[in-house]
Design brief:
With about 240 residues, this protein is an alpha/beta fold. The chain is built from six helices and twelve strands. The longest helix has 29 residues. It binds manganese (II) ion.
Length: about 240
């Protein structure tokens, strides 16, 4: 590989598939690695912190790649926005850049950003997104039981908050199209040939007039974007 791009590893969150990331990094031979945000899920670093050694090992592996001569660039996201403060600095051999431009072997100039700046909801209501991230099915089950108890006392039929959530998740595909449109429009405006991002946990490699490349994530998709020596970009999926 000439280059590899990963995003949304979400270390410190229970959903993070550190075994898959570790296996991917193990087999990786490339000249440069881009970590495209939400590397550590800092929103979870409060109260009782979950950070097992398998997650720490991912940090060590990335530093080790930098040590072995791989050019590692870290573009922070919204869950690790604190790292934007180090824009332009090198930390342990890792170059931190709030945004970057990568030139492919075939000469395309691709803009690299995490992607939260293309997210309409994220931009207008970051607090709502934080609350959304804290919610999970377990919480919803408990909330659902409480709501239905309340409704029962008033003689109303019970409702399913989970079904409501799933319906909302379906509607997300529309939001994802909107995200892609925003990302490619802004890339074109800035004179780039395409954009490489993450954030929405939806891997994509669309070679349009303006390319749209999304690295995916390491909670569900376990995908990375890679560039071959001839400059072709494609997604790879890490099984296990
Ligand atoms: Mn994000």
């Amino acid at each position: 590989m000439r280059s590899a791009f990963i995003s949304d590893t979400h270390l410190a969150s229970r959903g993070c598939r550190s075994g898959a990331i570790s296996a991917f990094l193990d087999g990786l031979e490339c000249e440069r690695l881009f970590v495209v945000g939400d590397f550590v899920d800092c929103w979870r670093l409060r109260g009782k912190v979950y950070f097992p050694s398998s997650h720490l090992e991912i940090v060590m592996r990335v530093l080790d790649l930098a040590d072995r001569g791989v050019e590692v660039t870290y573009v922070p996201g919204n869950h690790d926005a604190v790292a934007h403060a180090y824009d332009g600095q090198a930390l342990g051999g890792v170059r931190v850049m709030s945004e970057a431009v990568h030139q492919t072997a075939d000469g395309r100039r691709l803009w690299i950003v995490h992607g939260d700046q293309f997210d309409r909801i994220e931009r207008s209501a970051p607090l709502v997104c934080m609350i959304g991230a804290a919610a999970n099915e377990h919480f919803l089950h408990r909330a659902n039981a409480a709501v239905n108890q309340w409704r029962e006392r008033r003689g109303k039929p019970s409702v399913s908050l989970l079904a409501e959530l799933r319906a909302n998740t379906k509607r997300m595909t529309g939001a994802q199209r909107e995200f892609e449109y925003e990302a490619t429009s802004r890339a074109a405006e800035a004179g780039h040939d395409g954009v490489i991002c993450g954030h929405v946990h939806a891997p994509a490699a669309i070679q349009g007039e303006v390319g749209y490349f999304n690295c995916g994530d390491w909670i569900d998709s376990c995908t990375a974007l890679v560039e071959d020596l001839d400059g072709e970009l494609r997604l790879v999926r890490q099984l296990s």
